[in-house]
Design brief:
The protein has one domain. Helices cover 58% and strands 2% of the residues. The protein contains 15 helices and four strands. Helix 1 packs across helix 14, helix 3 packs parallel to helix 10 and helix 10 packs across helix 15.
């Protein structure tokens, strides 16, 4: 599936939605990128990140373990709010500042170049498509798509998956990063461009710096046991938050998993594909919108990734209404708990049935 593609020609749905958003920004006189709201929030989150890291060194005993936990949460906030917008060139109108913000992913433990290939180029283009979107490939540990092979142990995946989420970032940063670095592929698709000497140097230097910051330096003031436990606690918080938030947008019972035809062509135009495979949740929850960097407005983000998340609450009703006029819907769960229930049901049904259509799912509107 290396040549997977969308239908050629006009993209009428995207053109209409794009014209709508362009009209909105012209009417209100705002840039599409982040504004003072995002930049002030970034300062608050970076302060939380720095404070929680410094607390590892001066809090005693078990309190230091609490600091590791808090630092894991703060690191997730950096990823959701700062790195993510920076990687999509939507944090600022300054290209250099966007690159700097995207580089916070190296500080978090992964790699900016890898994220651009995995997330921007593959996930955003071919959302929920097997062998193109690595986000739905768990190496067989659990089954997310009806087109993946079902194994006997998947019958229990809706139970054990929550424990695996605790090690998401450990596996990601110390296995998947290196797997992609060696193969120069995401899923079965080759990188869009070869890594430059600077990209290679950035990869190894940032990995070494990460180990120094989180293992070597803490070991100078803590016992080895304390460092290991603290590091695992931090990654448990970070991994669980990363996994759950991103899964709620796509691996739920309201999302679809389109399959290309024998010519590797997808049925719908790109914008329609995004609305079929992406689901919003808790769009009226202001705290979640702040903390998650607008990732509860995933449909809006997938349609317009270069618009900063601070604008999604205002755009949501406009896009929802226009999509409805065009005969489509922005799929959504009213609350976080409803989205979690949708994720649980989907995993349960993927573990019990060979196809989504064969299962007798609970009506998502009931949760």
């Amino acid at each position: 599936m290396s040549n997977i593609h969308f239908p050629s020609g006009q993209r009428p749905v995207y053109q209409q939605l794009s014209a709508l958003t362009n009209g909105y920004f012209k009417a209100v006189g705002l840039n599409k990128t982040g504004d003072r709201r995002l930049h002030n929030k970034a300062l608050v989150i970076l302060a939380m990140y720095a404070f929680s890291y410094s607390a590892l060194y001066w809090l005693p005993g078990n309190w230091a373990m609490a600091a590791w936990l808090l630092h894991g949460v703060a690191t997730a906030l950096v990823g959701f709010n700062i790195m993510h917008d920076g990687a999509h060139d939507s944090f600022s109108s300054s290209r250099k500042l966007n690159r700097l913000m995207a580089l916070t992913f190296n500080l978090i433990g992964s790699n900016r170049f890898y994220w651009a290939q995995k997330h921007n180029r593959n996930h955003h283009a071919f959302t929920n498509v097997d062998e193109a979107d690595e986000d739905i490939d768990a190496l067989g540990l659990f089954r997310m798509s009806p087109h993946q092979q079902r194994r006997p142990f998947h019958r229990f995946q809706h139970i054990y998956v929550w424990f695996l989420y605790l090690i998401t970032t450990l596996f990601w940063f110390f296995a998947l990063d290196f797997k992609a670095y060696k193969s120069q592929k995401i899923a079965k698709r080759a990188y869009s461009q070869p890594m430059s000497f600077g990209d290679h140097a950035e990869f190894w230097i940032s990995k070494g710096a990460y180990l120094c910051i989180y293992l070597v330096l803490p070991a100078m003031v803590m016992t080895t046991e304390q460092v290991i436990w603290g590091f695992l606690i931090m990654h448990a918080a970070l991994g669980f938050l990363f996994a759950v938030v991103f899964q709620l947008a796509h691996v739920v019972d309201k999302a679809e998993f389109p399959r290309p035809d024998e010519n590797d062509a997808l049925q719908d135009e790109w914008a329609v594909h995004q609305m079929r495979t992406t689901v919003d949740f808790a769009t009226n929850n202001r705290f979640l919108t702040w903390a998650l960097g607008g990732l509860n407005f995933q449909a809006e983000h997938h349609l317009f990734p270069r618009i900063s998340h601070v604008h999604y609450p205002a755009l949501h009703p406009l896009i929802e209404e226009r999509a409805k006029e065009l005969g489509y819907e922005l799929r959504s769960y009213p609350t976080l708990w409803a989205a979690l229930a949708g994720h649980y049901r989907h995993l349960r049904d993927m573990g019990r049935h060979d196809s989504k259509e064969a299962s007798s799912q609970t009506d998502p509107q009931t949760c």
